[in-house]
What does this fold into?
Amino acid sequence: MVKGSNWFEIDTVEDVISPALVVYPDRIEANIKMMIQIAGGTDSLRPHIKTHKIAEIINLQLKHGITKFKCATIAEAELLAKCDAPDILLAMQPVGINIHRFFELIVQYPNSSFSTIVDNEEIMLTMDTLASEKKLQVSLWLDINNGMNRTGIIPNKEAVLLYQKMALSNNVIAQGLHVYDGHIHESDYNLRQQICDKDFDLVVTLKSQIEQLGIKIKTIVAGGTPTFPIHVKRKHVEVCPGTPLLWDQGYADTYKDLKFLPAAVLVGAIVSKPADNLICLNLGHKSVAAEMPPPRLKILNFEKLEHISHSEEHLVVECIESKEYAIGTICYAIPTHICPTVLKYDTVLTVIDGTITGHWNIAARDHILN
It folds into this structure.
């Protein structure tokens, strides 16, 4: 096959079993460098790994001096520890058996520092008691709800008192505040900043109220990808971009101010042409995240498409130039939402300069590593 002129094309794509997910390490590394540039260095960066869940991408970030990470599952936390990540924040309040699993990580991986979030007294006291029983200290962040209404405690007097209890415990290290503002997704940067600043004022007020009790809050972990360029301008705030490592079409379309490179591409194929101007691809729900409204991907090498239907195994598109594409023709596509798309695959192929160089396991895809 003649080498293509587009960055996403694979020289030997006929050997790829589709559907497949492909990543481009050189573009991932470029995105890491851009993340660091926006953040003004690595000190305030705490990237989330939930998008990729891949050891090799963690190691690329470590190579560039990033030492603090955020994750959503115990398996992701363990993967980070296996990569010798120094500082690991589990940003999902553990409940039930996951509390014990979290403590097992602390004991099993002493070279990594683990912390997690709490938003209520019951879980905080459970963590306190277990830490006492195990004769260790547990690092906790108070999770704040500043408008997303998904997790976190409202920044009020109750939050002040809960943080005070954390700070006064001999078994708890009160690390600071954790604030995720995923409800802020305005495309216009200035409007996004205005809303972000307004909602963050609630957190600043809470911090002041806690510090009036003589309790110092050294760090606030804040935001996700859309707001990290805003939060990074604040002092003593760590930011947590995740999607920029791979990027996706949804964020590329919504946040024009963020210039990250798409670094993950789906490879599919035409499996049928059921009627005039209709093409059926093997990129169904089982291959690409389907929780977003259509279109759920952007096809890079076909033109003038309209998405018609999407089911488990099939994606049907209308294409007025369908006669130009034979059954079996390969397509390359960028998912609208990359995070849950990655979850559908065990491995990703790696491609550099059009050549397949190997594969990476999506090691923390499952909820249990060991």
In short: The CA atoms of residues 106 and 114 lie 6 Å apart.
